[in-house]
Structure formats: C-alpha cells, structure tokens
Amino acid sequence: MKILIAAAKTGGHIYPAVSVGSELINGGHNVIFLGSNSLLEKNAIKNVPEIQYESISMKGFRGNGLVNKMLVLLKLPINIFRLLSIIKINKVDSVIVFGGFITIPVSLAALILFKPIYVHEQNTVLGSANKLSAKIAKKIFLGMPLHHNQIKRSEVVGNPIRSSFIPSLQKPDDENIKIYITGGSQGAKYLNDNLPIILKNTNYSISIRHQCGKDKKEDVVKLYEDCNNVEIEEFFDNPNLLIDWSDFVISRSGALSLSETISMKKGLLMIPLPNAIDNHQLFNAKYIEKNGMGLIHEQQNGIEDLEKKINSILEDKKYLTWQQMNSETNHNEAAKNIVSSILNKNIL
C-alpha cells in the first residue's frame, strides 16, 4: 500500500506522523510525508530515507491576523489542486492527518478522490482542523481520551513516540534528586524566569538539567548564579536520555512531551501554557494528574504556589510514587496499533 501522512510545523504533529510512517515502511509499505517545507519536518524524516517528502506552501489559520487568514483561504484551492495531483500521480491508497491547518486541504483532496481518511489527535481536546476532518474520516485515533464525550469512530491508541523513549531502569550513582526542565520552543520564558530562583534557594540536594530555548542560555545562567549541579543548554539533542536520568520532569503540557515522559516511567510537574489553543494543555495535564503521574501548577496561581508545589514534591518524594504508576495507554505501541487498524480496514 501507499499511504500519505500529513503533518506540519510542530513536533507534536510531526514526530507521531514520522513514527507511524516508519512503522509502515518496516511493514513494506510506501509512505509520502506531506509537510510545509519546514526544517523541523525535514530533520524529523532524515533518518527514514525511504519516506518520500512533498510539501505545500501553507501557514496556520487560528491565531493569525485577518490578512494572513485571508491569504491562507485564497491559497486553499491551489493547495487542493496540488494535492489532487500528488495523490493521483503516486497512486495513494489512504491518507492519515495529524492536525494543524494542513489537515484541511489534504482531507478535502482525499475526499474528492474517494480515498480513506484517518485522523490522529494527540491532545485531550480535538483541534479545529481535526474536528472538521473527523466528520469525513473512516476512523479517529486518539492519543489520550478526550476530556469531553468521546466521538463516533474513535479509538484511544496513544501517541506514537520515538523508539528511543524506553526507560533503562538504571540507577545513577548521584544521590541528589535529579530534575529535568524543558519549556519547549513556545513556552520556556515562565520556566526560565522563575525556576532558577526557586531551585537555587531550596534546602534539598538536587541536580538540574535545564533546556532553556534558543538565545536564552546567558540569562538563565545568570539566574542560577553559583548554583552547583546545574547544566543549562539551549537544546539537548537526546531528551530521552535526560528524562531517563531524571527523577521527575518540569515541563509544559504538550501531549507528546507528556506521553514521552510517562512512557519512561517518570512523573511531571506540569505548567500548562495559558494561551494554548482551546486550553488543551491544561486538559492534557488534568488527565495526567488524574492518573496519578503528575502535579499541575497554573501560572495564574502565582510564584508562591509554584514554590510550594516544588517543595512538596521534594519533601514528600512524590516522584517515587509517580514512577510506580502505569499509564492507561501504551504509547510505545501506538504506531503499531494505528498501522494495524488501517491495514485491516483497507483489507476488508
């Protein structure tokens, strides 16, 4: 079979798509990755050279100004026409979309050509584009249960994560409590500004690895001052190794980051991005907290609340309890489950 997978812009869409693409390739199928010509997309697929890469010129819709929205809509017919050509020339059998506005023209082109459409939603809130595509989809795969009522033709399969996110279960010699901090490319500022001040004044023995984001390292180093056992980088190349090293993680609440962390048997202090579309990060975090694998701090509750929660984690060693919990969903098997379901549906 030949499958077209569509994902763009954010790692939360792209990496699950590549994981599913890799699973299809391993099964002897042909895969086309449809993106928006971003560097992140190209870097994500470079280790899977068998994947054919195609792109369309497209920006996001929600969160953009009126002029940009109009430009996106004006380009929509052009992009649909290009996608019709890609699907027909490559004899695509099925299409899988992973969210973001790129989902819309891909789904419409597949509908016109009577190709089966599948949707994967990473978050506990169905995104706007996925919500539209779900109306014409054969099946909707969910990374986590939706926080509201489930929708028809949906199945919770987990978020496809990279194969490197498997715990080693090795205990480091360092007896300090080890904390990995990652704010992500969109939401590092609040973590960068406040966590160094709180953590450097704690009475507990801790080691810290802090991913601060591009061009932020100098400012974060100053905030930590002479604090010992701190390593600060703009980006760590192998986040799986940092999660594995840590006792717990402090992060935003993107679905993929949460899935990767709990799959490695580590819990989280989650600080949802307050301006995330549809407040999906807060609902993601509530799902993790409900399952006993983390704790939420909302920015609106202030720095004192953040400090109190960090100290409660360190004092009560909550992270040890988090590590003993099991996720409801096996994210490591998500890609395999999606592929199996699609192939079975197309065989019938």
In this structure, how is the largest beta sheet organized? 7 strands, parallel
Structural class: alpha/beta
- The coarse silhouette is elongated
Strand content: 15-25%
CATH-defined fold name of the largest domain: Rossmann fold
Please state the oligomeric state of the protein chains shown: single chain
Spatial sequence of strands, sheet with the most strands: 3-2-1-4-5-6-7
Q: Which radius of gyration do the C-alpha atoms yield?
A: 21 Å
Detail the poorly predicted runs.
none
Number of helices: 13
Mean pLDDT: 91
CATH architecture of the largest domain: 3-Layer(aba) Sandwich
CATH class of the largest domain: Alpha Beta
CATH superfamily label of the largest domain: Glycogen Phosphorylase B
End-to-end CA span: 14 Å
Count the E strands. Answer: 13
Helix content: 40-55%
Number of domains: 2
Order of helix and strand elements from N to C terminus: EHEHEHEHEHEEEHEHEHEHEHEHHH
Structural topology:
Elements: E1 2-6, H1 11-26, E2 30-35, H2 39-45, E3 52-55, H3 66-89, E4 94-97, H4 103-112, E5 117-121, H5 128-134, E6 139-142, E7 154-156, E8 177-182, H6 189-200, E9 206-211, H7 217-224, E10 230-233, H8 239-245, E11 248-251, H9 255-263, E12 267-270, H10 280-290, E13 294-296, H11 303-316, H12 318-324, H13 334-347
Parallel strand pairs: 1-2, 1-4, 2-3, 4-5, 5-6, 6-7, 8-9, 8-11, 9-10, 11-12, 12-13
Helix pairs in contact: 1-2, 1-13, 3-4, 4-5, 6-7
